Amino acid sequence: MAKDNNQIWVEVDHYIAGTVARNDEVLDAATKANADAELPSIDVTAAQGKFLHVLALAVRAKRVLEIGTLGGYSTIWLARALGRGGRVVSLEYQPKHAEVATANLKRAGLATKVEIRVGAAADSLARLVEEGVNPFDLVFIDADKRNNAVYLDWALKLSRPGTLIVVDNVVREGELVNSESSDPDLVGTRQMFERMASEPRLVATALQTVGTKGYDGFAIAVVV
User: Fold this and answer.
1) In angstroms, rounded to a whole number, what is the distance separating the alpha carbons of residues 98 and 46?
2) How confident is the model at residue 4 (pLDDT cuts 50, 70, 90)?
3) Which has more pLDDT, 168 or 4?
4) Which residue among 5, 86, 153, 156 has its CA within the 20 to 30 Å range from the CA of 201?
5) How wide is the angle at C-alpha 171 spanned by C-alphas 40 and 153, nearest 5°?
6) Distance CA 65, CA 74 (A)
7) Distance separating alpha carbons of residues 37 and 48, to the nearest angstrom
8) What's the sign of the alpha-carbon dihedral 42, 160, 208, 80?
9) Cα angle at 186 between 181 and 187, to 5 degrees?
10) What does the alpha-carbon distance between residue 179 and residue 175 come to, in Å, rounded to a whole number?
11) Residue 195, φ and ψ in degrees, nearest 5
């Protein structure tokens, strides 16, 4: 019997999650805690979480900035890639989400590796710049999409040559090509792409993705 594309995407995602990108008890517990707390079901998938983990290992990241914590599922994947002394600074707007994430990170034994800052991300990013923090090795942007271009600009201020910047949910079921849309999330994402294209300090591309979360994609840029 023929299968539709969506069914194939889901089955392939399950295969990947059952082989090279397996969840463990800690990640499963985080997923359950997020669901029990009725957080939005918008975490990265296991395969995507492992992708972030691999990227952090590839750039030998010691300092990671995450914009958008939610319940900390992706935070766990990122923090696990860091060596001794490594640190994730994760920004979350919703206090409830930060509370759930804090509990998940504590259960994972990663509480000392992660600092969650609660409040509007743009405000938190401005404070990081004011504090003169050391540049980050990897920045993962996965918050409100209408501010993607704003977050990219702040990420550049907090980066160094070699910093990797990853932005999630950039294809938006193919709506990315709809220049007539007034959807703030789409407008913000298109502005982010235009900013990437015009910024001489960035070498960037994007990849379309399919899977249990449907049709979407990542933008990836390196600071030069």
Assistant:
1) 20
2) confident
3) 168
4) 86
5) 85
6) 12
7) 22
8) negative
9) 75
10) 9
11) -65, -45
Residue in this structure with the two tokens 């517990």, named with its chain if needed: 29
CA dist 99 and 168 (Å) reads 23
Backbone angles phi, psi at 220, to 5 degrees: -135, 130
d(CA 221, CA 224): 9
| Calpha distance 162→221 (Å, rounded) | 10
Q: How far apart are alpha carbons 135 and 147 in whole angstroms? A: 21
What tokens does 187 get?
């407008």
> Is 0.85 topped by the overall pTM?
yes
Where are the extended beta strands (E) located within 68-213?
Answer: 87-92, 114-118, 138-141, 164-168, 202-211
The three-state secondary structure class of 63 is strand
**Cα 182 to Cα 88: distance, rounded to the nearest angstrom:** 34
Tokens of 215: 């049709």
Percent helix, percent strand, percent coil in the chain, to nearest 5: 50, 20, 30
**Residue 213: Cβ within 10 Å count:** 19
Q: Which two tokens stand for residue 69?
A: 């914590």
137-184 pLDDT, tens digit per residue, is: 999 999 999 999 999 999 999 999 999 999 999 999 999 999 999 999
